[in-house]
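Notes from hallway chat w/ T.B., transcribed later so I don't forget. T.B. wanted the structure written out for a chain they're using in a teaching module, and asked if we could keep both sequence and structure tokens in one place. Agreed to drop them here.
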Amino acid sequence: MKRKKRIISAILTLSMLLSTGRTIFALDNKVNDSKVTNNNKLRLWYDAPAEDSYNGWEKWSLPIGNGHMGASIFGGVEYERVQLNEKTLWSGGPSESRPNYNGGNIESNATVKVDGVDVPIMKAIQDAFARGDIATANSLCNKLTGVSDDAGTKGYGYFLSYGNMYLDFKDNIKADNVKNYVRDLDLYTAISSVNYDYNNVNYRREYFMSYPDNVMVTKLSASEKGKLSLDVRVEPDNTRGGGPNTNNGYSRTFDKTAKDGLITISGELDDNQMKFSSQTKVINSGGIITDLADGKVNVKDADEVIIITSIGTDYKNDYPKYRTGESDEDLEARVNKNIVEASKKGYDALIESHLSDYQGIFSRVDLDLGQTPSSMTTDKLLKKYNDGTAPETEQRDLEVMLFQYGRYLSIASSRDGSLPSNLQGIWAGGNNSPWHSDYHMNVNLQMNYWPSYSTNMAETALPLIDYIESLREPGRVTAEIYANIKSTDENKENGFMAHTQNTPFGWTAPGWSFDWGGLQQQYLGFYKMFGNTMSTLAM
């Protein structure tokens, strides 16, 4: 805790120092009102919903997040789909079916026979290279591997999709009948919205993910009273999904209820018995709401609807069990506390705390390349950029957008107190994401954090520093097995190993084929920013 206090203090000081630049760093942490209301500046926008498919999720849905939870907005008209994620919802790791889980290490690979004597594998490789026996050395290197688990059933696991929230609209609206449709993501506010006109009524939806309150907030409104009728449902994702991998460890069991406008889901992953819970509170102004027997909430003739969602698991990054020890009731109560407190605050206070938190980081940097906002939708501008027909200043506009979108995604997917952003940040459109949506430390994980220090948002790197720290204890086991480096009572921290492929469960074993990776650059960047606060961190 003392380390984090010193780090936060250093971050605040650093942001003040870096904000004095004229072109790149903005002095004011408050966003200029004109930037918020300008419909084209730093705003991804489209004139059609995202396709309801894995391809549509990957290419066209709009992501929001708070470091703990993620959501992807599709913007449908007849029904809305909001893909939900919780960063710690992983299969793999310790399990009733894996009582001897050890982070993927293959202990039988620790030694090899050389002239009838057991020799540590690393020593045998070094000796083979030293005497020029390259063939033997290469052959032995193939034993520097961990458990192979592409199917996700031997402990490596997958980052899983939590499920989807659906809004099923009841006014027989058809996508072909709406006018002035706009779906967007405002990078200045981290708010996604959907707007359209139907039968001379304007309909609007807003979505944001609050880090201070750890909830997702959805607001539905219309230009006339009594025009909102819909069912709200939350469906845990119990299908393999449309991704490219084969995950056989995604299944789960759960209960779902609706009471007093609150949809509650409590369940457990079959693979590792991880508990999960979510609550979705539906609050209406005008009209009536009705709880349905199948766990849905029906809204009829409302003027405005606020939906508050929170998700949690019993994961804890604490070797070797990786669990909080909470009961089902404890976990549900923790999630419910977020819902109750957010409901008491109300929409205006929720959005105020969200904006204060998010803009306090995002608005530190303003990039000026001489750009002018384009009147084209983002997809059309991108097409013209690629074929070289976009005006020069609008090309610069897209480049600035991409730069700031990267910063936005970092803030949305990596905040203090959470795991680091994985290969897909905090978003997964199915249970079979490529490369398990894991932590690849050959370079991919590091790439997520390249902008953290250089674009004045160093606090987004804290989850990565904490994660590296968490690999030390299981990594000492790996170092002893594969390198014969032992930590003893006299020398408790005699070195640790971690390799290319990693998960939230201390999977420090070498990869499934002979490969390496490193994270020293992140430590170096941290040290350059915060100096002697590194004293509590051992390499």
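Follow-up for T.B.: The first strand starts at residue 43 and ends at 46. Might be a good example for the class.
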